[in-house]
User: Fold this.
Amino acid sequence: MNRLLVLVAAVAALVASTAGAQSAFPSRIDLPNGFQPEGITIAGDTFYVGSIPTGDVYRGSLRTGKGALLQAVSGDAAIGMKVDRGRLFVAGGATGKAYVYNAKTGALITSYALSGGGFVNDVVVTKRAAWFTDSFKPVLYRVPLGPNGRPGGSFTPVTLGGDYVQGANFNVNGIDATANGKTLVFVQSNTGKLFTTGANGVARTIVLAGGESVPNGDGILLDGKTLYVVQNALDVVAKIALAPNLRSGRVVRRISDPANLDFPTTIAELGSSLYAVNARFDFPSPNASTPYWVTKLSK
Assistant:
């Protein structure tokens, strides 16, 4: 019994120590002035944030808040991004391209010309594929992944159907996937609707209780059966409890931080914290001296 009590106490101390260490992480991480960020992804306690106008990527430590440019990375744009098995997958926005970089060195591994006239907005990486969204076209782009996540040389456009209806302006935006990679979840920005789909593109609406929706939905994060949706112009992150079959859900609350959220676009997580990048799209005449930052939020 004494040994059991000692073990329980040790585990409790470890949990408390870990939680305390994470809570000591900075609540605000400054990015380079004029960076104009949009996407964020996290591996361990390392974060990556992309720049819309340059395609540069800033890599830093959530623990210290310090970072630097991943120098070798320079495309035409960097919007949504995900890091997976040592590779950084980046959506290229209005370029219609997608890029894959070495997450350590920044060296370009490969790129894909996904869409002419589209807007490649976000990406999720599963065990077998990387899926990119297009906000101007009713398609997802599937890039197959080989052993150890190595990207293939081709891609396949998958047309969205089922419950999904293409509208005007920005449509499909943020995307994530279940742990087994078989079900994708995405948000349609202009309608505030949420959907699931599989590899066939047949979409099904996630019905939110009380007629709720997530207008201005941007980046999303699926954590088990909890879905977080950034509502960019509203400066909030909706926390949604999903049904086991993902066909319905309920908005639990909307996470806000008026002093530190300024047009957030995407989020990533570490432990009990979310990290939101502030694109500041409503800032008048951004220039090289305009400040940008990442905000830490409690789940």
About this structure: The mean pLDDT is 93. Helices lie at 2-23.
